[in-house]
Structure to design on (97 residues):
């Protein structure tokens, strides 16, 4: 794709302003994406995923719908509750998500 008109139309639909300086690299990037998608359409069809076995239904308990008992205070069922806030443990030092 070398025509800037479709890129400008897409930018207008997305309410983006594309400067003339950014138009060339954007055309190149969109062309690369379209070429990759075209390669994906030429891949052979994959084998269907194996079907999960039909397990018998579980009979551990009866499925009963009952109202939840939320009439109490949140502090009553919270592990820790301070100044109206739930208190949760800090993550481990290496566990930064």
């Amino acid at each position: 794709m070398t025509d800037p008109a479709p890129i400008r139309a897409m930018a207008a639909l997305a309410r983006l302003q594309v400067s003339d300086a950014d138009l060339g690299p954007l055309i190149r990037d969109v062309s690369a994406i379209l070429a990759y998608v075209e390669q994906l359409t030429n891949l052979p069809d994959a084998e269907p995923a194996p079907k999960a076995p039909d397990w018998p239904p579980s009979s551990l308990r009866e499925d009963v719908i009952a109202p939840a008992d939320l009439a109490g205070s949140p502090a009553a069922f919270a592990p820790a509750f301070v100044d109206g806030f739930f208190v949760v443990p800090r993550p481990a030092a290496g566990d930064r998500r």
Remarks:
- Helices lie at 4-13, 20-41, 74-77.
- The chain has three helices and two strands.
